[in-house]
Amino acid sequence: MAHWKVLQLAAPVFFALAGAAAAQEVTIETARGRVELPEIPERIVVLDIAAADTLAALGVQPAGVPANMYVSYLDGLQAKAASAGTLFEPDYEAIAMLAPDLIVAGGRSSTQVAPLSEIAPAIDMTIWGTDLTVQALARLRDYGRLTGREAQAADLEAAFNARLEDARAAVAGRGDALIVMTNGPRVSAYGAHSRFGWLHQALELPEAVPDLDAQTHGEAVSFEFIAAADPDWLIVVDRALALGQSNQAAKVTLDNALVAGTTAWKTGQVIYLNPANVYVAGGGIQSMTATLEEIRSGFAQGVKAGG
């Protein structure tokens, strides 16, 4: 399966292995359109944390993964795989030596699809947008087809939907929320149309501040902004902690008189999400399921410290 070529016909993209018989053709949807693979790949290099998350949940062991995965629950998967470089700078020589049948890129590595395609068929499985749950479940089904594990994918989807219903019930009628991300002393807010907006949309969780600017990095805000918003719930993502940096922690950043005057702070309704799960691995079925449980538990207990 080393010799291959790409055939592009209008919008769809078709991968074909020259001189190889199609043992079990697989059709999946990617961020760049429909892709047809002539058979289930045996050796996969994964350069996207969300993809590695979902493939691991399906019981797939990649041949290569990024040197830094950021999320501890994938340590076992990483220990059995070769290093394929970083999310932004793949190690092309190391990947070539692994002789993969397929390379899965996405998110931070999506810009590398073209050069990676010089080594083996490469697909872009980026998950992005406010309908994150829809996309994540679609990717789960595609990975199930891609690896011949449709039954396992169906079980994971059912478990996710059950957790989603539990979390939705927990937040119902409990007030509004403001999602903020700290990066040292800086704070950004995220609304329903942002990268973390799936928490508002999927959970039907009201926004404390409707119509926040839907930017990739959120809307930079002040502590005065948070005080004026006066959310019933404050949901916090610590970017520095997610990336293993030693910047000022979110709890320190937010511990000031203005934030302390909010309903969320006074009532202990502050939820610190596991930041690596939601920031780095967002879209992975395991990370999203864990985040939903943090939300459910946080609304039940008042305060939930992640990390």
TrEMBL record:
- Can you give the residue ranges of the Fe/B12 periplasmic-binding domain? 43-303
Q: Does the keyword Nucleotide-binding apply?
A: no
Localization in the cell: Cell envelope
Q: Which PROSITE patterns match?
A: FE_B12_PBP
Q: Which keywords accompany this UniProt record?
A: Ion transport, Iron, Iron transport, Signal, Transport
Q: Which InterPro entries does the entry mention? A: ABC_transptr_periplasmic_BD (IPR002491), Bact_iron-sidero_bind (IPR051313), FatB (IPR033870)
Q: Where is the signal peptide?
A: 1-23
CDD domains (alphabetical): FatB
| Chief location of this protein within or outside the cell | other
Family matches, as Pfam families: Peripla_BP_2
List the PANTHER family.
IRON III DICITRATE-BINDING PERIPLASMIC PROTEIN, PETROBACTIN-BINDING PROTEIN YCLQ
The similarity annotation says: Belongs to the bacterial solute-binding protein 8 family.
Q: What is this protein called?
A: Siderophore ABC transporter substrate-binding protein
